[in-house]
């Protein structure tokens, strides 16, 4: 199985998660903290590092079945993929597995951001991140059911 890393999609999903948290953020005096939490253009490099950290964490957790590949094609376009060696993987679980990997990468990167911008939500995001990782790993390590031949 292959998982292609789409950084634009990951950033967009991060924006959604961060926006939800920012909408509910108010100071003790009742002032909105939205602008101090949401991502801006100046955060681009930091977000890229958080996504790199998320990818590294996922590859480290699944090192026995996962390899990271970064290729540059003609014209300078790059492709990043996670390749999984799981010969008896149940292909019917592929979309759900990819969704959980995406969720993990997004939540991991958001958690990293919230450590400095909104520490009060870090425990919740840490739990959600761990749940997504556990679910993705469970899907990846699930095998096809044996088929009886009579």
Structure, explained:
This protein is mainly α and 150 residues long. It has one domain. Helices cover 55% and strands 11% of the residues. The chain has 5 helices and 3 strands, in the order βαααββαα. Strands 1-3-2 form a 3-stranded antiparallel sheet, with no helix packed on it. A hairpin with a 5-residue loop joins β2 and β3. The longest helix is centred in the C-terminal third of the chain and has 24 residues.
Task: Give keywords.
single chain, 150 residues, mainly alpha, three-stranded antiparallel beta sheet, 5 helices
Short recap of the structure:
The protein is mostly helical. It has five helices and three strands. Helix 1 crosses helix 4, helix 3 packs across helix 4 and helix 4 packs antiparallel against helix 5.
Quaternary status of these chains?
single chain
Mean pLDDT: 92
Cα distance spanning the termini: 30 Å
Number of domains: 1
Helical segment tally?
5
Tally of DSSP β-strands: 3
**Shape by Cα distribution:** globular
Parts with pLDDT < 50 across at least 5 consecutive residues: none
Radius of gyration: 18 Å
Strand adjacency order, main sheet: 1-3-2
Q: Main sheet?
A: 3 strands, antiparallel
Classify the beta-strand content into a percent band: 5-15%
Order of helices and strands: EHHHEEHH
The computed structural class is mainly alpha
Percent helix range: 55-70%
């Amino acid at each position: 199985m292959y998982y292609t890393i789409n950084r634009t999609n990951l950033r967009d999903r991060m924006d959604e998660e961060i926006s939800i948290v920012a909408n509910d953020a108010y100071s003790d005096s009742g002032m909105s903290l939205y602008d101090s939490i949401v991502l801006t253009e100046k955060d681009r490099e930091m977000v890229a590092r958080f996504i790199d950290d998320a990818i590294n964490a996922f590859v480290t957790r699944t090192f026995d079945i996962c390899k990271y590949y970064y290729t540059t094609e003609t014209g300078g376009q790059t492709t990043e993929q996670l390749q999984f060696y799981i010969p008896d993987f149940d292909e019917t679980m592929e979309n759900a597995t990819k969704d959980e990997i995406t969720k993990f990468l997004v939540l991991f990167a958001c958690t990293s951001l919230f450590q400095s911008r909104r520490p009060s939500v870090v425990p919740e995001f840490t739990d959600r991140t761990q749940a997504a990782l556990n679910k993705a790993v469970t899907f990846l390590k699930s095998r096809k059911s044996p088929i009886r031949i009579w």
